[in-house]
């Protein structure tokens, strides 16, 4: 009996992009049920994705600079030793496309991506105008995978009971990438939102990195909050999202995870990113966009959040 095929999947960063690739990961596993599938990713996601049902091995990419010859040689040796028969490059960046060249010309694996000369190119000229999920679905169709399911987070979770939260509660995600301050709605806006939600009987739970602690302190001056900044793993976020009444946050990675976990989510976009290309997706996601984001009035956000909390009307059955 021949050995199972060896497959490599490349998805390096960032969190939102990784979450939006979960459906593609599932589709690849379903298409290659007996294959040994390796994921090449970056350190922040390696241990988390190692617990998923999609991969037999997870490698951490050190992302060597192009002038780092020893680092490139180590990466090349590792890729070649993997004996991969097919590669799904879901990153489709200049960096990941260059990895195609690290394989010897006479023994390059089948390659799904945009690297010049690859066997299964995504030739859609409009791919850069597609949402990330739709772009990946098109890429996989070109490689013979017809269906890509929505992202599924049922495999991950954490011990959220240690936070001793009482329902109902709302998640607030006031941070974003430190080098993109224009993507942050002002802390004063979140403080006004917290006060309004507190009047509705909701406890506020602020999540984010340790760098968001000062924002959490500002919000706490307006309403009682539970400050979990710097305390949550990705699994914790999934569990917190499942128990939350709603979430409000900026265009940032945790909101992708929260929305995909099924939490009703209100996401605030500035003019620095286009929700048509990268908005979180989930069962119930609402987008507000304002440029600049600081001009988005608290009353608009409060009204949208309260509307999001209302139960959706049940669809009429065929017999009604």
Strand content: 15-25%
How big is the Rg? Answer: 21 Å
Q: What class would the helix/strand composition place it in?
A: alpha/beta
As for the CATH topology of the largest domain, it is Rossmann fold
Tally of individual domains: 2
Helix percent band: 25-40%
| CATH class category of the largest domain | Alpha Beta
Overall residue-averaged pLDDT value: 94
Number of strands: 12
Largest sheet: number of strands, sense, barrel closure: 6 strands, parallel
Uncertain runs: none
Lateral arrangement of strands in the main beta sheet: 3-2-1-4-5-6
Shape estimate: elongated
Written as H for each helix and E for each strand, in order along the chain, the element string is EHHEHEHEHEEHEHEHEHEHEHEH
Q: Please work out how many helical segments DSSP would assign.
A: 12
Question: Which architecture of the largest domain would the CATH scheme give at its second level?
Answer: 3-Layer(aba) Sandwich
CATH superfamily label of the largest domain: Glycogen Phosphorylase B
How far is the first residue's CA from the last residue's CA? 57 Å
What would you note in describing this structure?
With 320 residues, the chain is of the alpha/beta class. The chain folds into two domains: 6-142, Rossmann fold (3-Layer(aba) Sandwich); 160-309, Glycogen Phosphorylase B (Rossmann fold), CATH 3.40.50. Helix content is 34%, strand content 16%. It has twelve helices and twelve strands. It has helices spanning 15-19, 22-31, 43-50, 69-81, 94-99, 132-142, 187-199, 213-220, 234-243, 253-260, 275-278, 298-309, and strands spanning 6-10, 36-41, 57-60, 86-89, 110-113, 120-121, 169-173, 203-206, 225-227, 246-250, 265-269, 285-289. The protein has a six-stranded parallel β-sheet, with helices on one face. It has a six-stranded parallel β-sheet with strand order 9-8-7-10-11-12, with helices on both faces. Helix 7 crosses helix 8 (213-220) and helix 9 (234-243) packs across helix 10. The longest helix is centred in the N-terminal third of the chain and has 13 residues, at 69-81.
């Amino acid at each position: 009996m021949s050995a199972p095929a060896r497959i490599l999947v490349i998805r390096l960063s960032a969190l939102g992009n990784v979450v939006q690739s979960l459906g593609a990961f599932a589709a690849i596993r379903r298409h290659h049920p007996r294959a040994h599938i390796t994921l090449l990713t970056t350190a922040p996601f390696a241990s988390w994705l190692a617990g998923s049902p999609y991969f037999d091995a997870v490698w951490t990419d050190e992302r060597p600079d192009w002038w780092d010859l020893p680092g490139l040689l180590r990466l090349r040796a590792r890729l070649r030793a993997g004996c991969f028969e097919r590669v799904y490059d879901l990153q489709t960046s200049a960096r990941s496309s260059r990895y195609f060249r690290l394989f010897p010309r006479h023994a390059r694996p089948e390659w799904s991506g945009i690297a010049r000369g690859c066997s299964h190119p995504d030739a859609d000229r409009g791919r850069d105008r597609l949402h990330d999920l739709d772009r990946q679905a098109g890429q996989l169709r070109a490689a013979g995978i017809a269906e890509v399911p929505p992202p599924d987070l049922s495999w991950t979770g954490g011990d959220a009971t240690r936070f001793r939260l009482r329902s109902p509660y709302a998640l607030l995600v006031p941070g974003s990438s430190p080098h993109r301050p224009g993507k942050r709605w002002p802390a004063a806006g979140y403080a006004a939102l917290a006060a309004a939600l507190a009047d509705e009987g909701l406890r506020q739970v602020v999540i984010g990195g340790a760098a968001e602690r000062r924002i959490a302190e500002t919000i706490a001056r307006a309403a009682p909050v539970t400050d979990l900044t710097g305390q949550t793993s990705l699994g914790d976020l999934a569990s917190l999202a499942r128990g939350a009444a709603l979430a409000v946050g900026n265009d940032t990675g945790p909101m992708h995870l929260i929305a995909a976990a099924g939490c009703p989510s209100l996401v605030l976009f500035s003019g620095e990113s286009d929700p048509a290309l990268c908005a979180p997706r989930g069962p119930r996601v609402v987008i507000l966009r304002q440029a600049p984001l600081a001009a988005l009035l608290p009353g608009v956000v409060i009204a949208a959040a309260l509307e999001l909390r209302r139960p959706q009307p049940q669809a009429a059955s065929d017999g009604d």
